[in-house]
Amino acid sequence: MAKANFKLIFFFLLFNGVELLKAQEKQVLFSLDSCLTIAKSKNFLIREAEINIKLSEEKIKEAHKTWIPKISGFYNGFYDIYRANHIDEIIEDDHPHTKHLHYDLSNVAGIEASALLYNFNSRKYRKEKSLFENLVAINEKKDQENKVILRIYELFFTILINQKLLNISENNVNNLSNLHKISEKKFAIGVITKFDLSQIEQEYNNSVYDHQEKEQQLTQSKFALLNFLQLEHSPDNLVIQDFESSQNESTLSKLLLFKFNKEHLENYPILLAEKNRLKMMEKEVLLYKNNIKPKINGFMSFGTSSQSFLNAESQNNSLYSQWGNNINNRIGVSITVPIVNSYSDKSIIVQSRILVENQINNIHKIENELYGQIYSELLNLKNDQKLISLAKVRENVSKKVFEMSVSAFNSGTINTYDLNKSRLDFISNQVERARLEITSRLREKVIEVYYQFNI
Predict the structure, then answer these.
(1) Three-class SS of 171-205
(2) 208: exposed, middle or buried (C-beta count within 10 Å: 0-12, 13-18, 19+)?
(3) Interhelix angle for 32-42 vs 44-64, to 10°?
(4) How far apart are the first and last CA of the chain?
(5) CATH homologous superfamily of domain 29-66+120-293+341-451?
(6) DSSP of 309-337, one letter per residue?
(7) Tell me, what DSSP letter sits at residue 247?
(8) 341: helix, coil or strand?
(9) Which of 99, 122, 306, 445 has the least C-beta neighbours within 10 A?
(10) pTM of the model
(11) Rounded to 5 degrees, what angle do the CA atoms 143, 145, 146 make?
């Protein structure tokens, strides 16, 4: 019989051990660094920014190749209608050919090479514009990386807060469970009333409900992180590896004593991107202005032409038949001057200047918002240190009061109401301290992102 029981216990332990190993295999451990690595390699925003960089690099190549002549084949078919005045010196004035219109069908085909020779520095402006556009794309990628990092910090520390709150809630459930067992015994011997016991039961049920809510919040925050990382793991299997604050005392003191002003924002990516966008738009204004100026092109063509005379008089004339087929070789310069719709072009120039003015205003707006955001984080970080010190004292005092209240309740000195009041105060102070400490750690990481750009 003992041998059979031993086998049963052995298989029970083996089965539970296997299940435990399976559960451990399913768990996925994530640290803050691993989350950042995954996000930087897979995030859609960063990938989109990388594509924009490639596009801007191609525009640089395009702008630098505008000097290369264009070679194209051409064919033109057209009718000519003219008087034969060009042969008046050869033929008598009363010759019948000079008194009629002549019709012919011309076909011209060949190869032509053309190149822009001069357009008031448009080629130079186009190159400069493409370079500024590339700098915009590069700095926008850095800004997107910062946004992704900040978002990871927000999601990661939200999980840490929810884990801490869940632990506090779990301790509260355990305390009330023990208190409820003691209260049942005290009620059984008539030390407390049914009302007191019902209050304890109500508080216990509320704590269980609160614990379930905290579990749900933790699961939702884990899912939010996994979704942002574009991973399909179950939130229940995600384990977040906590860490101590990365700032040592000297670095934290340096941050707290830092005298921050707007000059420290000069190297921040979003501002660099917008300033380069401004320079790009200024080059666009110059390009629009050149659209209403003449363009000088050089060309060279090789081809043949043939003419078919449609009226009988021309067909029977030997002089005209000599012009029927020719080889055309041309080299020259063409000047193009815009004439019609110049008002529309001028309006585009005015619009582009207005957009430049708006971009200058936009830069000031972004600079002011960024300054306010960073300065606010620094102020809050300083205030957090004071509040955390006070929160520790409050939590320690409320813990002692709660422990004394439990002893007093067990001895019958205080009632259930006084016990619950001290318990709720203790829980409230625990939650407040946890939020302050983790939020302060989040602020440190956020300021690290700003600080890397000489802030």
Answers:
(1) HHHHHHHHHHHHHHHHHHCCCCCHHHHHHHHHHHH
(2) middle
(3) 40
(4) 76
(5) Outer membrane efflux proteins (OEP) (1.20.1600.10)
(6) E-SHHHHT-HHHHTTSEEEEEEEEEEEE-
(7) -
(8) coil
(9) 99
(10) 0.78
(11) 65
Q: Are 134 and 59 in contact (CB under 8 A)?
A: yes
Per-domain boundaries in the chain: 29-66+120-293+341-451, 70-118+296-337
